[in-house]
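Exercise 7. Given the components listed, write out the predicted structure of the assembled complex. Treat all entries as one system.
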Amino acid sequence: MVRGSFFKRNKDKKDKKQEKTNNEQENFSIEIGKDLEKNLDNIRKMLDKPNDLIIREFTIRHSDHKGALVFIDGLVDKDVINNRILLRLQRVNERRDLPSSDSKLFDIIYREIISVSDIQRSKTLDDVSNAILYGGTAFYLDGIDDVLIMDTKGWESRSIEEPMTEPVIRGPREGFVENLRTNMVLIRRHIQDPNLRFKTHQIGRRSKRNLVVTYIDGITHPDLLKEINRRLKTIDMDDAPESGYIEQWIEDSFLSPFPQFLNTERPDRVAFSLLEGKVAILLDGTPFVLIAPISIGNALQSPEDYYERWTIGTLLRSLRYLAAFIAIFAPALYIALVSFHQGMIPSKLAFSIAATRDGVPFPAFVEAFLMGVTMELLREAGARLPKTIGQTIGIVGGLVIGDAAVQAGVVSPIMVIVVALTAIASFSLPAYSVAISFRLIRFGFMFAAAIFGLYGIIIAYIMVNIHIVNLKSIGVPYSAPFAPSFFSDWKDLVLRAPIQVLTKRPTYLKTTDPESANKGGQKT
Amino acid sequence: MKWFEYGDEKISEREIMIAIPSMVIGVGILSLPRGVAAATTGSDGWITVLVSGIVIIFLTWMTAKLASSFPNKSFLSYSTLIVTKPIAVILTFLFAVTSLMITAYEVREISDIAKQYLFDRTPVAVIALSFLLVVVYAVSGSRAGIFRLNMMFLPIILFITLSVFVFNLGWFKLSNLMPFFQTSFTGYAKGISTGITSYMGFGIILFYVSLVEKPEKTPKYAVMGMCIPVVAYILLFVTCIGVFGHSVASNLLFPTIELAKEVDIPGGFFERFESVFFVIWIMAIFNTTVMAFDVAVLALSSIFKNRAKMTLMLFLTPLVYAVAMYPEDLTEVDTFGKIIGYITAFVTISITVLLTVIAKLRRVRQVD
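Answer.
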């Protein structure tokens, strides 16, 4: 996007009233001039004199040069401004005489006097406004058409806590926060590799938000990076308040029910993915980091699989595949068996199901659909309510409604079991975004089962498979490494082979450095 | 590079290895034991299945050899080199027509079996339409996607085949296999011809090898792929005879599905294993149908170059549906299947042999 388009857009507006107010705003110029008063006026007018805009005008020590500091209260660390900048510029008993020429003085201030580590010169008002809105401080000197921009960020932010959405039993307890810098530090602390790269993009027409693409040079396939950067450059919207906006803008297929990015709050998960050859996208202002490209197998993996011993890791993985199966198919199978293929149920069980369904007035599909929707409502209500009340919903919903519904003969007890099992199974999936899409396609399967029974289920299953094999995440097949099959990746799919055996990075990512470990260990 | 390319229209020779059994295993195996058992006595059928298998493996090798000696060339363009352009167009068209007929037959057969084993009230026309639409959905996606589907489904199909075999071992009676080697020569010949028609489908190599990136090793992989259905057929045939005995097996409509009926899952989780078997088998039939339809589309779009794939499919789908709905009852469907089997066998084998011989005689080579 074009620098300064912010101003242009205002000009385009035809509306007369709008024009009047704009005219007032347009009394400032984008250029930075030599006159200090005019420059400060420009800034004031541009931001329309908010009362948190602080402009501190002063005289440089031992001289009659006028200068000014501009920053926004609350976004900056006042200590830094007072002690490192203001004090050094004003204090009279400093040893050295300052030159009288404007440009030389400016140079000396830049090189010697101000002791802030991150400082740069700039010439445009756009730079200044972007900087001060992101916690920077601008220094103007009268007679100079340059500005010094110093990094003085210091706002309130949440401290590092355990991630709320992905708790683990074993593993690091830290999670990402809203601050981009802190998040980068968290990743750096996990991977101390000089090849770890952070590439910054600025996102947003109005709000300029920093977005960082992270990868490890020498592992990630260069074309993958090129493609991600290309897509990020196409983003053109007012603001991206959450990484979900980024995800939706650059994903391969917006019609798909499956997420093509994984989001996580866990630095260890990001670090692991980077070492696999994937790319992470961090956005300022959100603790959720995107990981791409992913495949269907990643959806059922948790970092914890690797922390536990391999037998346990494998067991947990297979359990999750079972959970995914139940979460998608259980209600559909119930509908198909009860309304089409009663003969497939063992006769004793068939009798007891028939007996319990005796008073139920609805067909199996309506029954399952009712209970399914109730379950979704309960879950939604539980997520919205304050934590202390949230538990009440569980009790009211689960016990009271479930029991009462059975007593009233609205649903059969078997149905309640099926729905409860489905809910538990979908809760046990490690990635929330995947669990949601499974919830979504479950209803599709229920419809298919209601119309065609088992045949409908298999037809729906085939359709989901057709969709998955044609789906891509940043150009990488979503069905990899099942198909296209990379057999060497299979030992880290449903199985989680012993750590000594997992010597290769995923082949389907076409990493430039395929080995990740040496089978024999280090020679001693 | 615009995308992070994964060579979507290119496949590896391993995918050819998977595609062949996926194509061959379809509705044929469901009724194969009946046809073979009717022609032979005792358990001699396995010899005919094996011999026809070996013949087919040889033909597969020949086909793959022929196609892979013209790397990255479509069937139309290399057959143009061997025989002239008009004949090549006719041959391609013949292939397209047989492939479409296979598609129609599979669609019809699956609907009939589904009606027999899964529903009793749903009309065949509705089942066929829903299945055909899913096939169209698959074909309208990328071609690499079809090969990935094969890879996703084939392991499940082989697993269910194996479990039918394992769970039936308890019912297996050696006395049912008797007597050995009592079949007359004409019996063998008839059995082999039935066997050969049930192995049809390797003709897809002629078209798909052009998508393989490095086709030198394709013949080897194609032969390996062809071995899978041969082993599966022999296994299922012997189990059928061993469990049912010769006379029952030769009179059952779908002996393989009936075989699944015998399965009793330990623990009694569910009954009527044949429904599960058939439901899984739908995937096998689906793969066959998709590839047959895709080859037809591929062949026709090589003739009509400036027609979009979607336009072709829009035209072909109602045609396939109409052909599938044409036979009146099960007997007609069976006859229809037999005719198609013989036509396909004739077309595939004669074209392969013809092209190979002419190519050898005229010393046609890949010109670079």
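Discussion: Residues 180 and 284 of chain A are 5 Å apart (CA to CA). The first strand of chain A starts at residue 53 and ends at 59.
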